[in-house]
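HUMAN: Please help interpret these tokens:
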Amino acid sequence: MNGIYLIIGGNVGNRTDNLEKSKHFIQECIGLIQTHSSIYESEAWGNTNQSSFLNQVLFVKSSLDAKHILKECLLIEKKNGTCSKSKMGRANH
């Protein structure tokens, strides 16, 4: 098992609910969440004409390699309806 850090966050819809859904999918598809940070609110950067973000860091134990973890993270974004539409990063509008 490998220990990995994932940073999750978003600024669309019910932000708290979206974090909880993401954590559920991460446990289901990637591995066991060992611990997590508090939830932090941060202002949008770059394109500031959007809502503030909620962010959280997770420490996860997983048997997956990096390539498969990325694949699962992208699938989780699709499940949550939060796929990136921005060239500035993972931000949503």
Observations:
- The chain is about 30% helix and 30% strand.
- The chain has a mean pLDDT of 88.
